[in-house]
């Protein structure tokens, strides 16, 4: 039961990671649900003493890969987010900055976006991010460096207030 409580506490982070994978709020929620269901079915595979967040991020990444493959087989493409979602919303500096960062993140290659999400957003150590992504630590480091350079260029070298 303690593990299930810890899993419930991870839900906001899982949802945030899901958004970085899917670029779509509803798809992210569905992905979190799939990942939690898989985790609950496989609780006996979780090794106590290891990081639950890394285990869950790996499950989510694998669930997303499975979903992408299934979509490819079905040749389905999700509809883009509704146009006009932000109509009538006050255009404060933070809101504009957030949208700019989201747009810049969306332009990153997926492997770079995932590293940024795991290391910079979720705070995973490089070693844990490497384990989640199943790549060497050096690959995480180089992808993160390239992603930071690209984001800096896209965001105008810090011209946006956070």
List the helices and strands and how they pair.
Elements: H1 2-9, H2 11-22, H3 25-41, H4 52-74, H5 93-107, H6 110-121, H7 126-133, H8 137-154
Helix pairs in contact: 2-3, 2-4, 2-6, 3-4, 4-7, 6-8, 7-8
Give a concise summary.
This protein is an all-alpha fold. The chain has eight helices and no strands. About 5% of the residues have low confidence.
Describe it.
Residues 99-151 form the RNA polymerase sigma factor 70 region 4 type domain. The protein has 162 residues and is mainly alpha-helical. It has helices at residues 2-9, 11-22, 25-41, 52-74, 93-107, 110-121, 126-133, 137-154. It has two domains: 1-77, Rna Polymerase Sigma Factor, Chain: A (Orthogonal Bundle), CATH 1.10.1740; 91-162, Arc Repressor Mutant, subunit A, CATH 1.10.10.10. It has eight helices and no strands.
Q: What would you call the shape?
A: globular
How would you spell out the order of helices and strands? HHHHHHHH
Distance between the termini: 39 Å
CATH class of the largest domain: Mainly Alpha
Strand composition percent: under 5%
Task: Tell me which CATH architecture of the largest domain applies here.
Answer: Orthogonal Bundle
What's the tally of helices? 8
The beta-strand count equals 0
Which structural class matches the secondary elements? mainly alpha
The count of domains is 2
Overall pLDDT score: 83
As for the CATH topology of the largest domain, it is Rna Polymerase Sigma Factor, Chain: A
Give the CATH superfamily of the largest domain: RNA polymerase sigma factor, region 2, helix turn helix motif
Low-confidence parts: 76-83
InterPro entries: RNA_pol_sigma-70-like, RNA_pol_sigma-70_dom, RNA_pol_sigma70_r2, RNA_pol_sigma70_r4_t2, RNA_pol_sigma_r2, RNA_pol_sigma_r3/r4-like, WH-like_DNA-bd_sf
Domain RNA polymerase sigma-70 region: 9-74
Domain RNA polymerase sigma factor 70 region 4 type: 99-151
Keywords: Sigma factor, Transcription, Transcription regulation
């Amino acid at each position: 039961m303690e593990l299930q409580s810890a899993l419930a506490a991870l839900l906001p982070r899982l949802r945030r990671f899901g958004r970085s994978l899917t670029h779509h709020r509803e798809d992210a929620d569905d992905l979190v649900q799939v990942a939690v269901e898989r985790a609950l079915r496989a609780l006996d595979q979780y090794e106590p003493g290891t990081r639950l967040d890394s285990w869950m991020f790996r499950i989510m990444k694998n669930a997303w890969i499975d979903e992408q493959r299934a979509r490819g087989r079905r040749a389905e493409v999700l509809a883009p987010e509704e146009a006009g979602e932000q109509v009538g919303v006050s255009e404060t500096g933070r809101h504009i900055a957030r949208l700019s960062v989201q747009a810049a993140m969306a332009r990153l290659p997926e492997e770079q976006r995932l590293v940024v999400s795991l290391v910079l957003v979720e705070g995973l150590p490089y070693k844990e991010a490497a384990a989640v992504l199943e790549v060497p630590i050096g690959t995480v480091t180089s992808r993160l460096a390239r992603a930071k350079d690209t984001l800096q260029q896209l965001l105008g070298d810090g011209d946006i207030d956070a």
